[in-house]
């Protein structure tokens, strides 16, 4: 379709003979390939496929929507060229019901279609993260309480192993983590059984999964130490004196290391443990005259690194095989009990969700699996439902396959045709969602099993690599390749970054001046993390200002244009904690910046104030929330104001002090109390979301937050709070108290809600996490905060997907906790897995850049840091896996690679690195060390002369500031009033809540509601039938829904009979026409609504609405009748109360019909007679002009 596809892209589009795995590198156009494959399947003239016979699974709903839109656009474009193509018209129709969705949307549809087979409610709903957090807490609390009540000795031993006698938080965390992980497997109970069996196998330590992990680590460590020692022996040949003094000692070290290597290869556990404990280092001979010689320093640093490595191995192999076996035997019953508790937790949680007719995404997957497969001793067996479903789809296409888990993969296999029609697309180097149970090993297994695709053979299954990058300049792709050729290996990174993985530049850009990749090291002599943020922000601001001032050009749709702020993106490993600090500092330095953080909802100031106000409405006797509200922009109390209020009631709650201040004449305090009372009145009956809406309206809080910096985002956050309340109400709960309790529980458990996120294409520098940037691209990417250390803290209890549980055991004699082989092995593998993922995170970050990649790291002492890193380098082209996994931060990786770049001479010089470590690289880098300048705050301030005022501007400002709104006097006058309200006594907020709680409704109707029931009867009844048999007419109105059952019971038939027997009723039956519940809308003046207004405002129009109960025409004029049910015996008082209302009805009826009014009267159902008064109020009778 007009696009030049590469040969590998064309293969991925056209190969259809079987299952295909496409490994698509960053920027390789995988989405375009996927769309084109769909299109060519739909339009294939020989073997066409209908759109609804394809199952296309994407990672997110946004990706699914984009995919559907792209396909629809392609079909529309083809139809423009061939509008009468019936095939295309059919596909356009079928696309609406095509299965292009996330895995969870597909499972949800499948489950709802077959709910009766799974015994689940057809109207189940998906719980959000907040609800699940609270439900999990309730479930684990219930389960642990049950076990505590049983007095199970083994359970108490488990708690002791996890808690060290303090609390059971660690046990709770482990159970929940284990539960979440096992649900990523298709058969959780089988997985638990298999892992529990590992602890019961009576094998030597070296043959257990934990021993094998430890030995693999030892192999990498010793290989690294051997390489360092051999490199040292080679280097010392450059200087005879040094070789003479050091050679024997280093040769002795090498012999010892080779012996350790032999023990590892032979899996001689006890021999290795003994050799590590007794490893000896021969003393170096004295060497004079070489005090600060670079070669000598390099050699001593290398030996120091070797000693540190052997020391780590000594700690790892500190126990014999027999002692390890004893530890494993002790762990076996604890693991069994932990798995039992986890299963019980799962059952309890499932029951709680079932009671609420709710589910989470994991439930959808397992319900689908229950429908599709059966677990048998021989393995997975497909059901008849699966075979029927597989017949529906000609092909199953899965995007972002590297982020699937075992359960999802089994679903794909189950709905396929014996795994012969699967099409997977992904990039294992971009698998960065292990916290969501993503398993890149699934992708790697398939790739290892599938041979490369050969179009001449057309054999399947096969794999295809899309390595051409159409996003970035060659300077950026070259930098990515240079870094990951050294860092990523099978041991650390899960794959060898070689020729098949390297990016091949395919994008066409105009030539650029200078390097496309920069690495800047900020050298701080002193500083903490906060200083690092300021230093990096200042440097970034200067760099952006300089690039824009120099006229940086970026390419868009093949055309160059001047760069703007929106072309820059700052990427951080952890944005939630630091992004806002960078944004604040950049804004201070004149750079418009916006922090895109997914969490931090409760921490947002605008949300904190709104939540505090809700807490005060729920219970005003809370000092901290009340204080927050009073000092917020809503009321604007200053600390001095509050000190004055507090001084009189120091020991009482702040609310009591506020009441006292109100009684003493403090008007602002009185207003606050009035507002709180009004809100509390509304809270008694309104759902929480409607209450929040009314509070926002009355307080004007949304307008206040919109006037603050980043007002749009703040406004979105306060509205989002209302959406969360609405979701809470929809979940079956109701009321403010419950909503506030839910928020409190979330905060107590350190949980959070997603905050609003919308930059809407503004001209700002975006700051976001690397995870959030996945799938995006920016002309200029700045990777900052690289020197923040990885979290390598490991607790006493560790859980690994493959190695199971590792825990420290208590020594029966000393009471001290001693580590075990399973725990040490779990720690090693967790560390390896996390470092592999961190490498993939770095890969994602570096591949977001299109034209410029700026790498920024901050160190306290560049010379010391570089020197320490340089001691780990050898002449081998790839960094030792042990070195890569030992890095403390991303900065270590970047600096190690940069020192080996041809342009890294400045770094090598500072590190005193020896020749031989440099590697060739075709793409230039700009590498430098920068010493931050003195902060602006410390510079002397120059005194400036006083500037003369701009008289014209001053007059303009004064005119605008002194502007008086001409209708200011009408504030408080409504634009629309009800006739009944206008005629009544002043409105009291006390009766604002017209709806009553359910528990009051059980006590019957109120007198007012009984009166309303009688009004409804008179409005809807057939006068002719009611005159003869009012009871029959009442039954009809109830049956047809005009009256509720309670209202029907409240209608007093005897009073209806009395009315129809009255002379007034006889007049009605003889009337020319009768109007009932006649609704009107007329204009009156503002002066009538609020007497005392200035003449200029008194004649402004106000809309009056109302309804006349009954009016009948007699002798060409109207007789107005107002029905009353008041229990009043004084006719004169009753007339006086409603005379004004009748007068307004008279005016309205004349204005609307043009027919004069003969008389107005009341009919009292309590007195069973009509009432006439002497006169109507004069102001209400005046004619309309």
Structure commentary:
- With 1185 residues, the chain is an alpha/beta fold.
- 51% of the residues lie in helices and 13% in strands.
- It has a seven-stranded parallel β-sheet, sandwiched between helices. Strands 3-2-8-9-1-10 form a six-stranded parallel β-sheet, sandwiched between helices. Strands 26, 27, 28, 29, 30 and 31 form a six-stranded mixed β-sheet that branches.
- The two termini are 73 Å apart.
- The model is unreliable at 936-943 and 986-1002 (pLDDT under 50).
Furnish the topology, listing elements before pairings.
Elements: H1 7-14, E1 20-24, H2 30-42, E2 54-58, H3 61-81, H4 86-94, E3 99-102, H5 103-113, H6 115-118, E4 125-126, H7 129-150, H8 153-163, H9 169-182, H10 188-198, H11 209-235, H12 240-265, H13 269-277, H14 294-316, H15 321-355, E5 358-359, H16 361-372, E6 373-376, E7 379-382, H17 384-390, E8 395-398, H18 406-414, E9 422-426, H19 440-449, E10 462-466, E11 468-469, H20 474-487, E12 504-505, E13 517-523, H21 529-549, E14 553-556, E15 559-562, E16 568-572, H22 575-588, E17 593-596, H23 605-618, H24 623-630, H25 639-647, H26 654-663, H27 667-683, H28 688-699, H29 701-706, H30 711-730, H31 736-748, E18 765-769, H32 770-773, E19 778-783, E20 797-800, E21 804-807, E22 809-810, E23 817-818, H33 821-846, E24 849-859, H34 862-870, H35 881-885, H36 890-899, H37 905-911, E25 925-930, H38 951-961, E26 976-978, H39 979-983, H40 998-1001, H41 1007-1020, H42 1023-1028, H43 1030-1039, H44 1045-1050, H45 1053-1060, H46 1063-1069, E27 1074-1085, H47 1086-1089, H48 1095-1098, E28 1101-1114, E29 1117-1124, H49 1131-1153, E30 1157-1164, E31 1169-1171, ...
Helix pairs in contact: 1-2, 2-3, 3-4, 5-16, 7-15, 8-15, 9-15, 10-15, 11-12, 11-14, 11-33, 12-13, 16-18, 20-36, 21-22, 23-24, 23-31, 26-27, 28-30, 34-37
